[in-house]
Amino acid sequence: MTxxxxxxxxxxxxxxxxxxxxxxxxxxxxxxxxxxxxxxRDGRSFRPRSGIRDWxxxxxxxxxxxxxxxxxxxxxxxxxxxxxxFFVAERDWLDALWIVDEAQRRSAVTEA
Length: 112
What we know:
Layout: H1 3-12, E1 19-24, E2 28-33, E3 36-41, H2 48-51, E4 52-56, E5 62-65, E6 72-79, E7 82-89, H3 93-111
């Protein structure tokens, strides 16, 4: 995780919220906390509207895993307010898939 990403994360974590895992990506990072899934984009200070996206873990969080092709894979995160795509380099793909599985597991527990 870059220093800029770590700083951004410190700014948006809620009181008592803890990071479970993080995965670097092409120009961003995917971060799973005990409460949310976040995408923190590089250069976030230049684009405050799209620099940090977050989704609360819960039953309406849907993550679609795309194929791994030409050295990268994609994830699409859906929620009532639309969808966001996240691209992951092949070297980090398994870490990203673990985060997806863990986010879905925690969302299912939140639903019960």
